[in-house]
Structures are given as C-alpha cells and as structure tokens.
Amino acid sequence: MKLLVTLLTMLPLAARANSVPREPPANSKEVKNVLAVFAHPDDETWVSGTLSKLAYGGLKVTPVYVTSGDAGSDYSGAKLTGQALAKIRESEALKATSALGLSIPVFLRYPDGKIDRYYSEIRDELTSIIDELEPIAVVTFGAGGITGHIDHIYVGEIASEVSRSETVHFAVSQSRAELLAQYATKHGITFKVPEPVADADITHRVDVSLRGENRINAQASYKTQFPPVMMRAFADFVNGVPTEELVIPNSSNQLEEFL
Ligand SMILES: [Zn+2]
Fold it and tell me: What does pTM read for this prediction?
C-alpha cells in the first residue's frame, strides 16, 4: 500500500517532468529561439536528444519540415502513399516534436524528392522565418546529409546559406556509425550510415543521457517510418550510446551553455 501511495504521489511530478510548454511565455522577446530545418518528418531523429536538451534548457526550438514526406514508404501496414501519407507523417511529427519538448513544427509542404526545383522559394521562406524568430542558431544537415538523400543535402545547403547566426550541422561520426551498425546487427537487421563524417571533424559531442526517454518516445511516433524491430534497435542504441555529434564551424558562447 505504501508503494502504491508513493507511486501515486509521484505521478503528477513524472507527468510534469515531460511536459515542456509548447507556447512561449508572454514576454516572448526574452525567449531565445533555435531553428531546426529538416527535409522530412523523422529527420530530427538524428539530433533529437540535442534538440530536446536545448528545449529543456529553456530555448524555444522550432522545427521546420521542408517536405511532408509524400514520396516516402509506409511501414505501418496501412500502405498509404502521396498526400494521405504526408498527412499522417505530419501528425507523427507533431507527436514526436511534442515528446521532445519542441515547439509546434512549421510544415512548408514542398514536394518530397524535388527540393532542387524550389531552391529560391525555400530560401525565401526560410529567410522570412529567420527574420521573424531571429534564432541564435540554425540546426540542419551538413554535407552528405547523413544518408546521402538529395533532399537532406539541399535542405542543409539552403538553411546554412540563409543562417545569420550559429550554423549547427548534426552528424554521425565513423565510430558512432559503426556502433549503430553493431546495435542493428544485434537486433537482426542491417543498418549502415551512408555518409558518416570523420571523427576528427566532429566539434561537439553532446551528452544526451537525460533525454533518452524523450528520444525513444519521439521515434516511436513514426509508425509509418520505422518497423517495430528498428524502434527496438534504436531504443537499445539510445540507452547504450547516449551521445550525439555536431559540427559547428564557428562556435560562439550563445549556444555553448545549453549543450
Ligand atoms: Zn529524410
């Protein structure tokens, strides 16, 4: 009985611990913004611990998805394609970013796989968002886009080009890619990071051990993107390797204190 009472007493606290405000406080001018720019819903999985850490540290982290993933595959069994898939992927991104404590995402809804045709439009839209939010950092893909996906590479290039503050490229080093492959093998699947970066090029190794649960819950939101075995492998990896890697060419103190 005592245990039950203790557990019940703890519940509200546990709930509060995972609920970060989704809206800025009234004096939003004092809130420091971070913009995180991705090609597809689920791309933030590569840097989810860092983004969650920044949000829990008091920054307002706004994700932008340039496409809603309409050209992707559906692993949920529902066999959705096109706009029907995009709609579900947006709802998955809403859940995932909420689990990480991020702000409500911005969906630009450009066609998946065709970002190169809309380079100037995307650049203009991102510039408007930056003008409005004045972020202290723009987090996005670096060269190679981790998977080599052309959308990742273009989004990283455009976001880096329009960034007027700290540009943060999330990355996977060769040694972390090897660990990821080992965890996948342990779960009976093959997973290889196509575009890891040299270990020596990583400028920041971020301890995200306190955000493991957020990362696992966020990834579990993407039922169309990750089969259950991948979710299990990722959860295992998150617990075993609680570090994420960044390449920040011109590091300033603005972001440093939150990493
Ligand atoms: Zn992607």
Answer: 0.88
